[in-house]
Amino acid sequence: xPNPIPRHVAIIMDGNxxxxxxxxLLRVQGHEAGVRxxxxxxxxxxxxxxxxxxxxxxxxxxxxxxKEEVEFLMGLLSAYLDKKIDALIKHxxxxxxxxxxxxxAETLQKKIAEVMEVSRKNTGLVxxxxxxxxxxxxxxxxxxxxxxxTLRGALQPSEITEETLSKNLYTADMPDxxxxxxxxxxxxxxxxxxxxxxxxxLYVTQKFWPEFTRDEFEKALxxxxxxxxxxxxxxxxxxxxx
Length: 242
Ligand code: FPP
Fold this sequence. Notes:
globular; binds farnesyl diphosphate
C-alpha cells in the first residue's frame, strides 16, 4: 500500500542566489522569484490536503549575509505578509513562525504577531516560516525550559522522556515531518528541525528553489508515496504516517 499524503512537509528552500546568477540576474531577484514559488507551493500543499508546511526562510546563520541582502529578505517577508494576509485567511490557513523572533525588527515582529492572531482559529493548512531559526538553539532552549520545570519540582529528572523534549520545542503542537525536501542539490540538513526529522524521508532535488514548481513538488510527493518506511524495524511500515 502506498504511503498516504504526508501530514507534515518541511522544505529547505535553497538556491535562489545560484539560480539568479545562472540567469544573469541579481541575487535579490532570485529571492523575489523564490517568493513566487512559496506562493505556488503553499497553494499546492493546501490543495493536496497536507496539514503542515514548514519553510526554512531565514536561519540564525543567515544574519551573516551582507546587510543589504538581509534587509531585502526582511522587506520581502513584510511585503509577503501584507499581500497574502487576505488570501491566507480566505483559504483558512494558519500562519505560524518558529525561531528567535526577538531578533527581527519590532515592526516585523508586530506584523507577524497580527497575522498569527487573525489566522489562529483557522482550521486548514498550517504554514510555518522558520525565521532566525537554529535547531540546536531550539533544543538548548527546550532543555532550559525542562531544567526550570525540574528546579521548580514540577518534573522529576526520571520523568523526562522524548515526548517532554518534543513538547518544549517550537513545534510542540505539530506532528513531526514525514517528508523533508531540499532544493538545489546540497546533501545537508543545515541546522533545520534536527530532532523533528529523525524518521523523515529525505528528498533532495537538483532544482534551484525558483525552479521548484508545483510539478516538482508533486514529483517529491509521488516519490514519498513509494518509500519503504521502516522506523528501525525490519519490515516496511507502508501506508503509514506513524
Ligand atoms: C536560499 O537561497 C534561500 C534563502 C536564504 C531564503 C529563502 C527565502 C525565500 C524563498 C524568499 C523569502 C520568502 C518569503 C515568503 C519572504 P540562497 O540565497 O542561499 O541561494 P544560494 O545558495 O544559491 O546562494
